[in-house]
Amino acid sequence: MEDLAYELNKEAAIIARRACEDMTQETPDRPRYVCGALGPTNRTASISPSVENPSFRNVTFDELVTAYTEQVRGLLDGGADILLVETIFDTLNAKAALFAIETLMESGDYPRVPILVSGTIVDQSGRTLSGQTGEAFIISISHSKPTAIGLNCALGPAQMRPFIQSMASFTSAYVICYPNAGLPNTFGEYDETPEQMAAQVSEFARDGLVNIVGGCCGTTPAHIQAIVEACRDFPPRVPPEDLGRSKMLLSGLEPLIYDETTNFLNVGERCNVSGSRKFARLVVNNDYEEALAIARSQVENGGQILDINMDEGMLDGIAAMSKFINLISTEPDVSKVPLMIDSSNFSVIEAGLKCCQGKCIVNSISLKEGEADFLHKATLVRRYGAAVVVMAFDEEGQATTCARKLEICTRSYNLLVDKVGFNPQDIVFDPNILTICTGMEEHNGYAVEFIEATAQIKKTLPGAKVSGGVSNISFSFRGKEVIRQAMHSVFLYHAIKAGMDMGIVNPGFLTIYDEIPKDLLAICEGAVHNQNPNATEELLHYAETHGNAAGKAIESEEWRTWPVSKRLTHALVKGITKYILEDTEEARLDTQLYPRPLNVIEGPLMDGMNVVGNLFGSGKMFLPQVIKSARVMKKAVSHLIPFMEEERQRTLLENALTDDSQHYNGTVVIATVKGDVHDIGKNIVGVVLGCNNYKVIDLGVMTPCETIIDRAIKEKADIVGLSGLITPSLDEMIHVAKEMERRGLKVPLMIGGATTSKTHTAVKISPRYSFPAIHCLDASRSVVVASNLMDQSTRDDFIEDIAEEYEEIREDHYDSLKDRRYLSLDAARSNKFQIDWKHQPLPVRPTFLGTKTFKDFDLRQVLKYIDWNPFFQVWQLRGKYPNRGFPKIFNDETVGAEAKKVYDEAQTMLRDLLEKDALRASGIIGFYPANSVGDDIQLYHDESRTNVAGTFYGLRQQAEKDRDSNEPYYCLSDFVAPLESGISDYLGIFALTAGFGCNELSEQYTQDNDDYNSIMVKALADRLAEAFTEYMHERVRKDYWGYASEEGLAASDLLSVKYQGIRPAPGYPSQPDHTEKTTMWNLANVAEETGILLTESLAMTPAASV
């Protein structure tokens, strides 16, 4: 019946058109539309039907395009208003349908109509039949700009929900969802009633997950009617911001999300017949199984994208490309990464694109054959749904200078964006990495020209990426691999700093920058920067005198004589697995140094991984080496796990306790929510509740919502407690409450942490949860709350009182919002804080620009700067006036004696910590030329103030003030000289920590059942971090910046903020946006220099950091 496809679809659409018109005539306020459905066909372009021949396909992309074109023509000619590509189990089939639709629309024969795309997740793995995750599926088909994306078939609403929820947060398109009526029974029938299904689907609508709902297999008109009634009153989902506008999105079976905060992308180069003799030999000899092994090794060694090139004279490039990519599709470990289809023959590129269900990169197109050819190829690339590499070639030839590279790339960018409609994030420029040290003087500047062009592209072409074939730089040294590795490492180190995003490299063949011998490094630096005219001769001489053993640090077994801790670190950094088991066992048996197996992990193994992390973060080590190091770490940990488990079992037997061995007042599950690392308050609550005979299940920090809820159900919790310190944690707490409601939990929720409040709990959390959500100010309050909730005689009255109190808080809050008035932003700006910059003393220039790092800082220097008042708040010791503050608190009748005791014990521990260097401190300060531009502050690379290094975005006050006061509306930018003033101003940033070693110490105390000291060490680490900040700020004012060099304030004056200058922090009122931390971290390389990291919610870790 294939020959009837056009007529069948056209007639079906005509019938549907007639029915729509009839019903619309009856109820004109509810217009009906014809949606023409394009099913998946009964064949799959990504999977072979033959086990014996995995590269075979029983349908091709072109055949699918032809079939879908006929179907689409029939549907549109019959009057379809919408096209729906549905039940997609193979994304390549869907891409063929979308290609057919776009080709017809581009022809001008048909008007553009909305396109809906619906995939099918086949089971709880969350993947399509062809293996893609939901996110990878969205990335693969988003080039068609569908009106809606979603799921249908295979699953019922309950099973489909987590995947719809994930999709809803990932796409800016509308979300369509039409599940089956549950899962089929043993007879293949569907048992979910209209009422059951409608209740579940309505939850999707209630929670803002969907825009279009319906039913698939097993649903009837009664099901659809019930769904309509259940969802009628809910507002549609509001789509989030388009991720693809700020990030490069690629996909294989899994998504690859890349933006400016991500480290360099390695494109594996060895599946290239032009660049790898071994790969070429295997392909020419039709030994594709071994060729596939090379692809697998590229991914295992850290290739995040896989370059495929079949340009060889003895090959049929189209056939070889198709066969190899079809084989890759059968290997999930390889096909999980995106592919780069690489050829000088565009027909070969098309052949590769027709085999890829993911979103890949085309390498490459250029202006070499003129604009018409360029636009034709670019249009096809976009229609196939790929990103594109553009070479710096035009009609005049290859660009070799920075100016020419930029000229060609700018012209290409404008054509792609303005004429073809390319998303700038999908444009990758290759400004030509050309060979240096060829013996021709004019070639010596090629590396510099590339690096400079990279910086200019990143500055002037927003969103565009930069790539290149790294091995080209050293082509004149073929066969001298030590020289080539060193040159690649040096070149990449500087190119990445300039903004290079990705490079075609052999991921298993890179040298760590810091491991290059100093003499070889100096020659390579001179060659790359064109600062040494004799570099070529010196590199040749080096290769001749050192041979291929050069640069292999400690090639002998000398390192085997080192202490075991140093050997473990060396093995991790070098990725050596040969001796890791025997060295790990040696460390485990040394119980004086490592009393427990865990100590081996937390000691020498983590020390080694910290070295790896620092090298990687600073660009001196690349992802492949990190993966090898992780492999070594995994082997070591796997060896220790049986011993750790044995230790745990022994402890259980010695204690002879089970869950039933004592009667608890109740079970409480507590956790610091996802994205937050702060747990002092939570730990105190756990201890206090435990002392009051509650069974406490502490899930630790950074706890996902699902873990909290699943564990609460498993433990049959009587109460769930959530903790958090940073403001993003407030939103996560709301999410947990909503999910607890959705999953039907009926246990009270306690909310605590420094950033929480009774008002926020009452207004934002309590309305989302049917059971009580109660704010607990401190640990003592948590005991009162828990006791009232568990006492059946007081429970109901207590809950009723809380409900009434929180209702009053909500009413007061909303009443206050009615009274609060805001100025327009323009009005607030017109009444900003004014400084007469022309008549002010000129800003003082810091003694240096850039950053200064303080590693292993001596904390003894900060003791006099400690503010002890927050320390007593941790222990919930509050004196009454006039004995509130330190040291007057010791005189308080109620808490004085206990405060003195805790203080003395803190002094004892503090001395011990400092004597043993048990807490390690690091920090960084930086000074930058700065000027304000409106409400924002721009920081510059240098005093020329032409290149912006980063921008801090200010938020101006807008809440209306007393009109009689004439008080201005402040913004931080008011205090920095405006750019137009011509005045050179400056801004400093800092990040400090005193928390390295803290978690290990705290954990050690916890393992020893010493909760008091476990909390004490964290409280002291926090105090030291704040004192470190006061110390450093004073040094900045007096020395490093020097604007208050004569300052002579006492420590008490410093704590009272009597000095000149401020230090606003992200997340606080003057700079409320936590994302500004990301700007600081990127600008000053904070993570790499200090080890202070940011969580996904932008909390700092270690927690004792400022």
Automatic annotation (TrEMBL):
Its cofactor is Zn(2+); methylcob(III)alamin. One of its GO terms (cellular component) is cytosol. Methylcob(III)alamin binds at residues 602, 675-679, 723, 727, 779. Residues 816-1106 form the AdoMet activation domain. S-adenosyl-L-methionine binds at residues 867, 1063. Its EC number is 2.1.1.13. Zn(2+) binds at residues 153, 216-217. Residues 555-652 form the B12-binding N-terminal domain. Keywords: Amino-acid biosynthesis, Cobalamin, Cobalt, Metal-binding, Methionine biosynthesis, Methyltransferase, Repeat, S-adenosyl-L-methionine, Transferase, Zinc. InterPro entries: Cbl-bd_cap, Cobalamin-bd, Cobalamin-bd_sf, Dihydropteroate_synth-like_sf, HCY_dom, HCY_dom_sf, Met_Synthase/Corrinoid, Met_synthase_B12-bd. Residues 1-231 form the Hcy-binding domain. Pathway: Amino-acid biosynthesis; L-methionine biosynthesis via de novo pathway; L-methionine from L-homocysteine (MetH route): step 1/1. Residues 665-800 form the B12-binding domain. One of its GO terms (biological process) is tetrahydrofolate metabolic process. This is methionine synthase. It comes from Dispira parvispora. The lineage of its organism: Eukaryota, Fungi, Fungi incertae sedis, Zoopagomycota, Kickxellomycotina.
